[in-house]
Design a protein that fits this description.
By secondary structure, the protein is mainly β. 0% of the residues lie in helices and 54% in strands.
């Protein structure tokens, strides 16, 4: 879970943007917030994808970690600006 501390109080970082239901509409280099089980996971850039959007390669902001995500994974993506 992503957290931020402000004056000693931990706060959950909530996703921003709108839900992306059709991953095929995402462009390479677009940014998303990735959420699983209502817990924010990461902010990431779309590095590559299949034409239909059934498979995405995401690069996490900050760590540069590249992960493969399937449309069947229990995730919600939110389109964001950088």
């Amino acid at each position: 879970m992503l957290t931020n501390t402000c004056e000693g109080v931990a706060a959950i970082l909530l996703p921003t943007g709108r839900v992306v239901r059709d991953w095929g509409e995402l462009a390479v280099d677009s940014w998303v917030d990735v959420v699983a089980d209502s817990e924010p996971l990461t902010h990431a850039r779309v590095d590559a994808k299949t034409e239909d959007g059934s498979i995405l390669w995401l690069v996490e902001a900050g760590t540069g970690r590249r992960t493969l995500r399937l449309k069947t994974d229990p995730l919600v993506l939110y389109r964001t600006s950088h």
